[in-house]
Amino acid sequence: VIPASTSSHLRLGEGAEFDAIRSMLGEWGSRAAGIGDDGALLDVPAGERLVVSTDASIENVHFRREWLSAQQIGARAAAAALSDLAAMAATPLGLLLALGVPPDWQAELTELARGVGVAAERAGCAIVGGNIARSSALSLTFTVLGSTSQALHRAGAKAGDIVYVTGRLGGAGAALASLLAGRVPRPAHMERFVAPVPRLAESRWLVEHGVHAGIDLSDGLLADLGHLARASGVSVEIDLDRLPLVDDVDAAAAAVSGEEYELVVAAPRAARLRPEEFAKRFDLSLTEIGVVRDALDSPVIVVGARVDPARGHDHFS
Amino acid sequence: VIPASTSSHLRLGEGAEFDAIRSMLGEWGSRAAGIGDDGALLDVPAGERLVVSTDASIENVHFRREWLSAQQIGARAAAAALSDLAAMAATPLGLLLALGVPPDWQAELTELARGVGVAAERAGCAIVGGNIARSSALSLTFTVLGSTSQALHRAGAKAGDIVYVTGRLGGAGAALASLLAGRVPRPAHMERFVAPVPRLAESRWLVEHGVHAGIDLSDGLLADLGHLARASGVSVEIDLDRLPLVDDVDAAAAAVSGEEYELVVAAPRAARLRPEEFAKRFDLSLTEIGVVRDALDSPVIVVGARVDPARGHDHFS
Question: Which residue, A108, A231, B70, B187, is the most exposed by fewest CB within 10 angstroms?
Fold first, then answer.
């Protein structure tokens, strides 16, 4: 279900942009209701706080044109932006899209819009505004708005907590490595790269079941756990042997695979999250992968069979 | 006064970007309090609605590097974005800035941030989040958030209304024309181009005093009145002889001068807005420039001494 906005805004550009915008609005239909004013009007449910984040996807920085269709580029960029709402356990209220469009992308705007519309629809998110401007490289800058009565933060993890991750890791990174090497990625890996899913309902469930710190995986498990550990003033010990892996990826690669958009969270041992209940509800695994320690020299400590036994464990900072 | 946000987000990039962000945050200080999470948390005052808009300023599309200092570019782009909140009669809650930064702009980021900070401070607006990415041309994409209990819209003007404009027009367009021709603009014109002021308090005052339709002047008076007239289902008749002009600009040029960021509004005759009270309060003129008519062939009708008497009046569509 797409919440209706009473008003929204897509600034009109010149000439061909007019037609492009018309075709994008046609593509979005009721998902972008009420275009017309300088700003969109939205209501934050009583007792909830507004959550807002902005995220850009830029050609030749975040993707290459030959890797993805225009529709895939739109959907992937929107999903990545919406994942920031999942990281905060917020329910989407709406998104705004500022497009930078080079002349040779003009003809692809409808397809791009279709992808954005599909990702917004899946997340139950209205498209409430935007901006379009000429640019030398295609850029999609999303601002996502949501609301929550119980926000999830990076800070909040405590010594003794159990660390869990959703889904299976490594696919996005393996696909990207193949693409960069000029090889065709395995389909299962490419699927993870092309069509990430913001874990919105999952995040709210986790908070309701006792999770008190979390982050979405955009930079890779070890880097993002570093962010969480530093924000919480703790260290996190991760067991590489326990990482949930997609097929044909090893744990070391999965631990640094970026743009996964899964969630890694910390919950007190007493919370007793039940992974089997989570898996049944969301058709997605929830895996215990480590524990939170009092702050040590390194925010993230990696253990497991793949770590050189002479070193005992590896410090990652 | 800058409202505090409890949490916000500036996504960290690689290498030099880390340092750039640190220096930008240093520049912003308490205006950007609580950086750290994936999204910023904000509160919309009870009984008010959220207003949100996005706006991009792109090098060689909206400005040229040789025209403005980095600080001016930052301040001007932020003011232009904040003007959308003025157009809706909203009070700023916060802004997010997504930056696209080419390598040769890296050293200027602190100055750019200073300009954004100054414009945010003047508007009483916190900086609640952002994103930074490599780009081939400098781009600043702002999302501005505000709240209002009584939003101003483009729709709402009614036949018989009086049309008013704030400030004096023509400076921004005259400066732009000079710059494009390679001439040095007059200082008074350049000031209007470089440092537009979002009319935030003015807009709220106008709504409180009976204004029931309005828009900010970004595309030029005639074009923006066209937007207002079409949204309201009316025609607007403007008297060129009554336009408030900056020195050394004629009315025809002022009527198409873009990026003025003044407000043009419609109020019932019974509202009896008192321009002298407005001028005293805001040190800014409020000028009656026309009337609203039932919808005619053209949304905007221009009359006045400068219009060819053989034609009687000029239809602008």
Answer: B187
Q: Of chain B residues 107-136, which have a CB less than 8 A from chain A? A: 128-131, 133-136
d(CA B253, CA B176): 12
Lowest mean pLDDT segment, chosen from A119-133, A192-206, B33-47, B149-163: B33-47
- Whether A36 and chain B come into contact, CB under 8 Å, resolves to yes
Is the alpha carbon torsion for A149, A152, A153, A155 positive or negative?
Answer: positive
Strand partners, A236: A292, A300
Q: ipTM strictly over 0.95?
A: no
| B30 close contact with A: CB closer than 8 A | no
The answer to whether residue A51 neighbours chain B at the CB level (below 8 Å) is yes
Smallest Cβ distance to A98: which of B40, B54, B151? B54
Asked if B91 contacts B44 with a C-beta cutoff of 8 angstroms, the reply is: no
Name the DSSP letter for residue A65: G
Q: Chain B residues with CB inside 8 Å of A84's CB? A: 9, 38-39
Question: What sign results for the dihedral spanned by CA atoms A158, A162, A165, A166?
Answer: negative
Tell me which chain B residues have a C-beta less than 8 angstroms from the C-beta of A131: 54-56, 141
The pTM of the full predicted model, rounded to 2 decimals, is: 0.87
How far is it, in rounded angstroms, from Cα A275 to Cα A267?
A: 12
- Residue A10 to residues A21, B57, B129, B214, B285, Cα–Cα distance (Å): 8, 15, 22, 17, 30
pLDDT at A34 (0 to 100)? 57
Give every CB contact of residue A144 below 8 A, 6+ residues apart in sequence.
A52, A53, A54, A55, A81, A82, A84, A85, A92, A94, A95, A125, B39
CA angle A214, A216, A219 (to 5 degrees): 125
Q: Does B159 touch chain A (CB under 8 A)?
A: no
In this prediction, residues A2-9 reach a mean pLDDT of 29
Is there a contact between B85 and A136 if contact means CB atoms under 8 Å apart?
A: no
- Name every residue whose Cβ is closer than 8 Å to that of residue B225 and which is 6 or more positions away in sequence: B163, B215, B236, B238, B264, B299, B300
Half-sphere exposure of A169 (CA within 13 A, CB side): 32
Phi/psi for A262 (5° steps) reads -85, 175
Q: Is A202 helix (H, G, I), strand (E, B) or coil?
A: helix
Burial class (CB in 10 A: 0-12, 13-18, 19+), B122: middle
CB B115 within 8 A of CB B192: no
